[in-house]
Amino acid sequence: MESKRWKLVLFGSIGVAVDCLEWLLEQPQFEVIGVVCSREPKSNWRMEVRDRDMQQEAERLSVPILDMNDVLNLNADIGLSVRFHQILRQEHLDRFRKGVINMHGAPLPEYRGSMGNIMAILDGKDYFGVSLHLMDRGIDSGDIITVERYPITKTDTVYDLFVRSNRIGLRLIQTWLHAVMEDKVVYEDQAAACERLNYTSRTYGRKDAIKYKRIDAAMSPERIWDITRAFQFPGQEPAYLETPSGKVHLSIPKNEAEAKTATEAEYEYIGSKQR
Fold it and tell me: Distance between CA 107 and CA 148 in Å, rounded?
C-alpha cells in the first residue's frame, strides 16, 4: 500500500523560494500541488543579481502556478511561505490542515515585519537571524518553531544579512518541516519568548527604516559607516547626503564590503533553536 503524501502549497517568488521548491520536489513525503508567486516583472535588485524567478522555474518544473483565489478552494495539508510578498488572510490560512509555516528573514520575537536587517544594523546589534513560525492573522506574530541567530560583523551590509538569512532559513526548513508534519515540534508563544529572553517585540515597515537613509555630515564617522552599510542593497537607492545641488549617494566599495572580519566558514552560529 502506497504511503500518504502530504499536500503542500509553496508561497514565494524569489530565488530562495525556488531553491526550496527544488528541495521539496526531491522529498517523497510531499506533493507540491502548486506555488503562489508574483506575476510581475522582476524588481531592480533581482535583475541586478540575476535572481531566479519562481514563475519561470515553476513552469520549467511542471508545478501548477496558483493565485490567492485558487487557495480558497484548496484542501491541503500545509502551506509554506518563503519571503512571500503578500499577506495571507485567515480564510487562506484555514485551507491548510497544519496551517502555514513562514520563513521570516529576521529573528523573532524581536524583529517583526520587514526591514529588520536594516534596523538591526542601525540599532547597533551584534547579531541577526532568521525564524520559522506558524502564521496567524498578525504580522509575523504566530507561534515560533525555531530561530537561528548569527553574528553581524562591522563590515556586513544589509544585503549580506539578507543573503545569509535566506541560506540559513532554507536549511531550517529542511531540518524542521518533516517534524512539523509529524507533530514533533513544541511551538512557543511570542509573548512567552519575549519574557524568557527579556526582549521587546517591534514591528517594522519600509517607512520606519527609510527615514534613516539621509546622512547628516555632522554625524560621527562610525554612524555614517553604519547607515551606509544599512542601505547598501543591489538595485536600491543607497544612503545619501543632501546638498544644495542635490543628493550625494554613499556606498562601500566592493573590496571593502568583502573584507570581512571573519570568513563565512569561521562564523559560529549563536544557536540553531535559540528561542
Answer: 7
Q: φ and ψ at 20, to 5 degrees?
A: -65, -45
Q: Please, where are the H alpha helices in 25-77?
A: 44-49, 54-60, 68-71
Largest CA distance in the chain: 76
CB 48 within 8 A of CB 234: yes
Q: 26-42 burial string, b = 16+ CB within 10 Å, else e?
A: eeeebebbbbbbbeeeb
Number of neighbours of residue 118 by Cβ within 10 angstroms: 24
Q: Are 194 and 154 in contact (CB under 8 A)?
A: no
13: Cβ–Cβ under 8 A, 6 or more apart, which residues?
37, 38, 53, 54, 55, 83, 84, 85
Would you say residue 257 has pLDDT above 80?
A: no
Instruction: Using a pLDDT cut of 70, give the percent of the chain over it.
Output: 91
How much is the average pLDDT of 52-81? Answer: 96
Amino acid at position 97, single letter: R
Nearest to 142 by CA among 203, 197, 206: 203
- Is the domain spanning 209-257 CATH 1.10.10? The answer is no
- H or E stretch including 271? none
Residue ranges of domains in the chain = 6-203, 209-257
Angle (nearest 5°) at CA 32 between 116 and 86 = 35
Helix, strand, or coil here: 226? helix
Hey, what's the cell of 144?
515560533
Give the type of residue at 10.
L
Q: Is the pLDDT of residue 263 over 50?
A: no
pTM of the model: 0.90
Reduced to 3 states (helix: H, G, I; strand: E, B; else coil), residue 178 is helix
Topology of 6-203 in CATH? Answer: Rossmann fold (3.40.50)
Rounded distance between C-alpha atoms, residue 58 and residue 71, angstroms: 17
